[in-house]
Specification:
Radius of gyration: 17 Å
Number of strands: 7
Structural class: alpha/beta
Protein name: Alpha/beta fold hydrolase
Pfam families: Abhydrolase_1
Distance between the termini: 33 Å
Shape: globular
CATH architecture: 3-Layer(aba) Sandwich
CATH class: Alpha Beta
Number of helices: 9
InterPro entries: AB_hydrolase_1, AB_hydrolase_fold, AB_hydrolase_sf, Epox_hydrolase-like
CATH superfamily: Alpha/Beta hydrolase fold, catalytic domain
Order of helices and strands: EEHEHEHEHHHEHEHH
Keywords: Hydrolase
CATH topology: Rossmann fold
Strand content: 15-25%
Helix content: 40-55%
Number of domains: 1
Strand order of the largest sheet: 1-3-2-4-5-6-7
GO molecular function: hydrolase activity
Length: about 250
């Protein structure tokens, strides 16, 4: 199955992988800026998000992204990913390091992280609301948790729509299909990496960025004092130049 996707622009490929509170629409503020900066932008909906249906057989998100790149003729790409999408990008970059020209991880999750008290409580409360059939309540929990104080009403509504859609698609699935787990080592990643965290985010994601910065060979960690969990939606006017500047620098060294 091909992931629902769209492509814009010409130039070196950039693949955008969304957070699991969102879908590919979260990158609406970034696509025009990246195209204007000279990139070919590929973005997709992972399985069970946006317009991609739930899986009906075992699957692997990183393999799905690799298959999509193959289908679109992108041998190499920079990966830009947020939150749960960052976990996918880390696996991809560790399995196929030569295919990744640069890596930007915004508030990334990581399979090697053990959740702290704050994140465990968030997950417990989210599960409780979903099991009670309160998808509106679970959606609002995510909107409150994911967005920092500088997010405007439009950003909050965008996350609300994307998260509610994901919950509805996933709850309606007739059966739950387990993903295929692939063990990887982040030390296999060779691409230059920018790790971005937000001061107003849950502590787990700041800790993950700091730990990965120590373990990756060519990484730096930038904490944004104004940001929550989804800085690219909260202040695209600040994130877009940061993103493009890093990608230009990374491609100049290739």
């Amino acid at each position: 199955m091909t992931l629902t996707h769209d492509v814009a622009g010409k130039g070196p490929a950039v693949v955008l992988v969304h957070a699991t509170a969102c879908d590919r629409r979260m990158w609406d503020p970034q696509v025009p800026a990246l195209v204007d900066a000279g990139y070919r932008v590929l973005r997709c909906d992972l399985r069970g998000f946006g317009r991609t249906p739930m899986p009906d057989r075992p699957y692997n998100n990183a393999q799905d992204v690799a298959d999509l790149m193959d289908e679109l003729g992108a041998e190499q790409a920079a990966l830009v990913a947020a939150s749960g999408g960052g976990r996918v990008a880390l696996e991809f970059a560790a399995r196929w390091p030569r295919r990744v020209t640069a890596l930007v991880l915004l508030s990334t999750a990581w399979a090697g992280h053990e959740a702290g008290a704050e994140l465990r409580e968030f997950g417990r409360r989210e599960d409780e609301l979903i099991e009670a059939g309160d998808l509106a309540g679970a959606t609002e929990l995510n909107v409150r948790t994911c967005l920092g104080p500088q997010a405007d009403d439009a950003a909050r509504e965008k996350v609300r729509v994307m998260q509610r859609n994901a919950f509805e698609v996933q709850v309606a699935a007739s059966e739950e299909v387990e993903p295929i787990r692939v063990e990887t080592e982040v030390t296999e990643i060779t691409a230059p990496c920018l790790l971005v965290s937000g001061h107003h985010d849950l502590a787990d994601f700041r800790q993950i960025a700091a730990r990965l910065a120590d373990r990756l060979a060519h990484a730096r960690h930038l904490e944004l004092d104004w940001a929550g969990h989804l800085p690219s939606l909260e202040r695209p006017d600040l994130v877009n130049p940061l993103l493009i500047g890093f990608l230009h620098g990374a491609h100049a060294t290739i």
